[in-house]
């Protein structure tokens, strides 16, 4: 009942309150949590925690004149589009309808979009990867020498929830909105790592 209107949800509200951009990370397994007694109070608590974390953080210089800047796109090599085995039953629809709906939702040629500003890399995924997959991409970037790696969801499209095989096999809401089979997560991570490798070549 509280969501019957158009707004930017909490990232937009936090951005309005702080005057800063809010980048949404890998959220495929991050459940919304009501921190306060109302949505407004919850947003205020999140704003306070973010600002408190920023005050105690150690600043880093990620770019100086002469450091590389650039962007890349990497196609994601995926298995054919198909509904999760439990999708039709979960939504109470015929299998043929589930096949048709998945074909409407899932983009046929999704890609990872990434850019770097010096030692900062931002990897954009066109869907909702889980935090585990986000950490895999982040850690790969750190091993390549980036001081900060931000993995962002909902970038240039939406290919559904992006899960690792265990989450896919477990089923549930997210799995029913995962459209490319149980190996989808590994393939998205591979594309994210390839994008980071390409960003590294911009330094040469």
Nutshell version of this structure?
By secondary structure, this protein is of the alpha/beta class. The chain contains eight helices and six strands, in the order H-H-E-H-H-E-E-E-H-E-E-H-H-H.
Can you tell me about this structure?
42% of the residues lie in helices and 14% in strands. The protein contains 8 helices and 6 strands, in the order ααβααβββαββααα. It has helices spanning 9-18, 39-56, 87-91, 95-105, 131-143, 165-170, 173-176, 184-201; strands at 69-75, 111-117, 120-124, 128-129, 148-152, 161-162. β2 and β3 (120-124) form a beta hairpin. α1 (9-18) crosses α2 and α5 (131-143) runs parallel beside α8 (184-201). The longest helix is centred in the N-terminal third of the chain and has 18 residues, at 39-56.
């Amino acid at each position: 009942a509280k969501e019957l209107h158009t707004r930017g949800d909490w990232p937009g509200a936090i951005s309005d309150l702080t005057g800063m951009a809010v980048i949404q990370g890998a959220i495929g397994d991050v459940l919304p949590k009501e921190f306060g007694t109302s949505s407004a109070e919850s947003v205020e608590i999140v704003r306070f925690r973010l600002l408190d974390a920023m005050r105690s953080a150690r600043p880093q210089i990620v770019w100086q004149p002469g450091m590389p800047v650039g962007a890349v796109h990497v196609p994601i090599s995926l298995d054919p589009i198909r509904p999760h085995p439990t999708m039709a039953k979960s939504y109470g629809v015929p299998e043929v309808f589930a096949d048709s709906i998945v074909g409407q939702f899932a983009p046929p040629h999704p890609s990872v979009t990434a850019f770097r500003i010096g030692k900062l890399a931002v990897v954009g995924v066109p869907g909702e990867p889980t935090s585990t997959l986000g950490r895999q991409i982040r850690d790969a970037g750190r091993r390549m020498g980036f001081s900060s790696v931000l993995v962002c969801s909902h970038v240039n499209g939406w290919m559904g929830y992006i899960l690792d095989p265990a989450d896919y096999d477990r089923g549930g809401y997210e799995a029913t909105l995962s459209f490319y089979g149980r190996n989808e997560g590994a393939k998205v991570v591979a594309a994210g790592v390839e994008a980071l490798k390409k960003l590294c070549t911009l330094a040469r």
